[in-house]
Amino acid sequence: MRISLRAGERLYINGAVVLVDRKVSIELLNDATFLLEAHVMNVGDVTTPLRQLYFITQIMLMNPADTPAAAEMFAQAIRNNRKLFAEPRILAGLDSAEQFVSEDRKFDALKTIRTLLPIEAEVLCVGEGPIAGAAA
Predict the structure, then answer these.
(1) 12-67 pLDDT, tens per residue?
(2) Under 8 Å CB-to-CB from 116, ≥6 apart: which residues?
(3) CB burial string 108-119: b at 16+ within 10 A, e below
(4) CA 28 vs CA 3, 77, 78, 85: distances in Å
């Protein structure tokens, strides 16, 4: 997998943070868990239940050593969201996200949860807002 980064951009790989000082392309030659800075949600952006779920999943992806505690938080957040939302698209997305996490596919879970944020904003009548405070 080839990843292009801009100067000053961060990349989270297997729990490590890489900061590049110039525009670079990185090619990952084996399986690695990574997250682009543009997909990182800052704690100040955790303002809704699904954003909380996204943040917990993000923590599990960025810090694999702390996964057991975060996994319990994830399970609790899934249960809470199922009680909170009756919207079928959100419930289906929660099922998918839970399945992805159980298969250790946290990046796919993040992508799924990200697609639910506009639906949540519509249901809760709130603005969607940015995911990354650092994204340009």
Answers:
(1) 888 788 999 999 999 989 888 888 888 899 999 999 999 999 999 999 888 877 77
(2) 50, 89, 90, 93, 94
(3) ebbebbbebbeb
(4) 8, 32, 32, 38
124's CB contacts (< 8 A; 6+ apart) are 48
Q: Distance between CA 110 and CA 108 in Å, rounded?
A: 5
Contact 30, 70 (CB under 8 A): no
Cβ(28)–Cβ(76) below 8 Å:
no
Q: Is the pTM of this model over 0.85?
A: no
Nearest Cα residue to 41 out of 52, 33, 27: 52
Q: Which residue has the tokens 């392309």?
A: 25
Q: Residues 12, 100, 82, CA angle at the centre, nearest 5°?
A: 110
Which residue in 83, 89, 86, 36 sits closest to 61, CA to CA? 36
